[in-house]
Amino acid sequence: MILAASRSAQVARAVSAAPPTAAVVRRFVAGDHTEDALRVTHDLVKSGLSVTLDRLGEDTTTPELAQAARDEYVVLLEALSTAELTPAAEISVKLSALGLSFDRKLAYDHAHLICAKASEAGTTVTLDAEDHTTTDAALDILQRLRVDFPTTGAVLQAYLRRSEADARTLATAGSRVRLCKGAYAEPESVAHSSRLEIDKAYVRCLNILMSGTGYPMLATHDPRLVAITEDRAKWFDRSSDEFEFQMLYGVRPNEQQRLAAAGYTVRVYVPYGPQWYGYLMRRLAERPANTAFFLRALSSRS
Ligand code: FDA
Fold first, then answer.
1. How far is it, in rounded angstroms, from Cα 156 to Cα 170?
2. Which residue has the least CA distance to atom 43 on ligand 1?
3. pLDDT by residue (tens digit) across 260-302?
4. pLDDT tens digit string along 2-40?
5. 26-103+122-268 sits in which CATH class?
6. What pLDDT is recorded for position 287?
7. Which residues line ligand 1 (CB under 6 A)?
8. Is 241 a catalytic residue?
9. Nearest Cα residue to atom 6 of ligand 1
10. Which residue has the least CA distance to atom 18 on ligand 1?
């Protein structure tokens, strides 16, 4: 129900306009502006964590909006470089924000320019994974970007039935691959739906990535999967600089610190920007306790 609401413009307007929403948003989103992103990044890096920044925005519908999204990333990369926050901070990009749904070439061109700016700024880019109808196009664009920018990161969603095969293709030398469970409402024909099946699929993809020669980025807050990842690192003889953990801003911050103190690289995914609605709804859908927190805040007058 929440994922359906995440695509409703009517619900978006109602939720965004409710004043108490701001307090909930702040838990998961750095703020509306580049300065907010820089402030949060600075604090996280100072505390020993790495960062990947997502300028929020998806389902862009016009070339003008796609160009604006690209330009926001350029501004961000220049600011990160000036603030000497690279390479500790990299960026995450959704191809739909760059126009993928109406002009694949435009999305590629914008992504290419962002990768070039990231390279100048001394950092790199990871292409977020979106709903399954975009997977082929995203992986195709990834391969083309990697010709000029080999460190461009891919994202695989363990719930997709195809991801084990994609993991095998991507587990090659130098290939940065984020593995997450997957956050979109997908049909049974393309994705596992039970928690157990998704967790088992995650472990199968994890095994492929950790036994390969690429650089796995394990994006999960799930304590069992974190423990299995630590176990596989020993099993496949990977040192702590040969893979990393990734978690979302505002989710299990103590665990982020614990893993960093244990010597692992922990990268925090920090979203920012005024278009936080779809992102927030996906976070709420993941955890009933978040929804209760959100509803309490909405019904509170304080
Ligand atoms: P799961 O949802 O089973 O949660 C395990 C435990 O973690 C919970 O019991 C709870 O303790 C805690 N937890 C998880 N989510 C929480 C939340 N929102 N609030 C509070 N506690 C929470 N997806 C996608 O489709 N494309 C993408 O590109 C990305 N990118 C991405 C980057 C990074 C760095 C992360 C961490 C995640 C993503 N995701 C994503 C989202 C991912 O697919 C998935 O939806 C969430 O990470 C939740 O899955 P977990 O593996 O954490 O397990």
1. 10
2. 182
3. 999 999 999 999 998 888 888 888 887 767 777 666 555 543 3
4. 677 666 666 666 666 665 566 777 888 999 899 999 999
5. alpha beta
6. 72
7. 128-129, 155, 157, 180-184, 219-222, 246-248, 251-252, 269, 283, 286-287, 290
8. no
9. 222
10. 283
Q: Which of 55, 70, 178, 267 is catalytic?
A: 178
Selected catalytic residue, list 54, 55, 70, 128? 128
The pLDDT tens digits of the residues spanning 113-165 come to: 999 999 999 999 999 999 999 999 999 999 999 999 999 999 999 999 999 99
Give the chain's length.
302
172 contacts: CB under 8 Å, gap ≥ 6: 212, 213, 214
CB crowding 188-216: b at 16 or more within 10 Å, else e? eeebbeeeeebbebbeebbbbbbebebbb
Confirm if 230 and 258 have CB atoms less than 8 A apart: no
C-alpha 231/C-alpha 245 separation (Å) is 13
